Amino acid sequence: MGLEIKDTMKHTSLYQAHLDHQARMVPFGGWEMPLQYAGIRQEHLAVRKTGGLFDISHMGEFLIEGPDACSFLNQCLTNNVTGLDIGSGHYTLMCNEQGGTVDDLYLYRLEEQSFMMVVNASRIQADWEWLMHQKDQHIGSPNAVQCHNLSDQLGALAFQGPLVRTVLDRIAENTPNPIATMKKNQIQWGMIGGSRVRIATTGYTGEDGFELIADQGEMPHLWERILSEGKKEGICPAGLGARDTLRTEMGYPLYGHELSEEIDPLQAGLGFFVDLQKPDFVGKSALVQKKNKGLDQCSVAFLMQGKSAPPRPEYRVADAQGNNIGVVTSGTMSPSLETGLGMALIQTSVAHPGTTL
């Protein structure tokens, strides 16, 4: 009897569009996503020089509303939510009681009592369960905080690169503020080719760029509209491979690599996004203790000497004397620098710029 193998991978509404653009598809966080189209190097350099369009519809979106939404999120997240203006967002993290990282995410304040969390695809279920647990612990009236998981309803595109603002400015309509003058970490409604879209000036590449959030059904139209309009600027579709090399060049963390339930934000070098001065939040006590004691390990960026291939994650790191001092968390060949680079979690005592590993 033959064994029937069923495809258990999830697909975004752009799956057919990826196939039409000859994408190489791979599993990622339970989804089948495009690794590359023309090639990782070509897509990487396009984002650095012109622009690239990424499907990030696999990521999760939670809507948090109600009179206590702000105070509730301030107890859940490391960054200070009270200082977030309407129409703006910031990077933040969720921690467990031991200070380890549940997830890193972006939080947007849509209205005075309405917020949207954008979380990692591989952590949607874990994040939602964690959030529901925190809601159960929250003291207040039952309707003071309302949480909605919109991950299956919403899709998103990342439009990144030095020329993307020019392209988006041509096709975005009915925006309260001009695309040309939007500052980093802002979010607003707009129309693109008849589709209502939330337009945010955020990204994961180190370039100027936008993330566009709309109903899943609008994604194919938005995808083709942007690629068609950006053709003369050299805008191209880009996959997860280029997204990873771009973020690694910038030293941006990836959950499961630089962050995990065992790796806290301070070890990952993200202390700027942890407000230890605000009222209590989940993990604060543990993080305060860690900071006061001093960190045993920290995340560092490294550059390979010569043309050596970069090490893979989980490779051991040794000092000049051969002593084991840590582990590689990310490694790649940089298309921009044409050399290997990456990040590692190593002993703080040897984490000095210029150190040979």
Name the average pLDDT.
Answer: 96
How much of the sequence is in beta strands? Answer: 25-35%
- The number of distinct helices, counting runs of at least 4 residues, comes to 8
Number of strands: 18
Please give the domain count: 3
Structural class: alpha+beta
Helical amount:
10-25%
- At CATH level 3, the topology of the largest domain is Gyrase A, domain 2
In whole angstroms, the N-to-C terminal distance is 54 Å
Polypeptide structure, described:
- The protein has 357 residues and is of the alpha+beta class.
- The protein folds into three domains: 140 residues, Gyrase A, domain 2; 90 residues, 2-Layer Sandwich (Alpha-Beta Plaits); 62 residues, Elongation Factor Tu (Ef-tu), domain 3 (Beta Barrel), CATH 2.40.30.
- 22% of the residues lie in helices and 31% in strands.
- It has eight helices and 18 strands.
- The strands form four sheets. A seven-stranded mixed β-sheet has the order 10-11-12-13-9-3-14.
- Strand 17 and strand 18 form a beta hairpin.
- Helix 2 packs across helix 7.
- The longest helix has 14 residues.
- The radius of gyration is 21 Å and the shape is globular.
- The termini are far apart.
- 41% of the residues are buried.
- The N terminus is likely disordered.
In short:
Helices cover 22% and strands 31% of the residues.
Write the layout of secondary structure elements.
Elements: H1 15-20, E1 24-28, E2 31-36, H2 40-49, E3 52-55, E4 60-65, H3 69-76, E5 88-95, E6 101-111, E7 114-119, H4 124-137, E8 146-149, E9 154-160, H5 164-171, E10 172-173, E11 187-192, E12 195-200, E13 209-215, H6 219-229, E14 236-237, H7 240-250, H8 284-293, E15 297-303, E16 316-318, E17 324-334, E18 339-347
